[in-house]
Amino acid sequence: MSDITNISINGATKTAKGTPIVKKTGELDKNSFLRILVAELSNQDPTQQKDSTQYIAQLAQFSSLEQLTNLNNNISFSGATSLIGKDVLINQTDNEGNAIMGTVKGVSKNGDSLTVTLQLMQNGKPVLTSDGKPYLQDFDYKNVVEVAEITKATIPNSNTTV
Questions:
Q1: pTM for the full predicted model
Q2: Which of 25, 39, 68, 113 sits in a 20 to 30 Å window from 128, CA-based?
């Protein structure tokens, strides 16, 4: 029979065998869920097997978790792409301590990470490179804190309103 010892897990980052308990962010993802399930299956007592319906229920929960994660990622991407052409404020400052603001020119996705490409603005005017091209910079979508409303404007020498 094995002895059970009380162990404090506050601040613990690894098991006794050195396996990480959680990611640095403190969140469990689908891979963590699978690792826990595999560990449970591989370390079960053959003389006291669990009811197989528990495993089926856990697999169903895993499937639901994965679908919710995919749905969340799709909603985030949709929200990010809806910002294209809009002025946004970023939760960062430039080297001079000024708030960073710009017009969203594009959105890219790399795994679960979303990046917005901004044409930077300073004092309400686009920042240009030394050769006169728009200065573009990438920021994490999570750093967008405010979306400015764009007012309608008329294109000169035209009857078009945008």
A1: 0.58
A2: 113
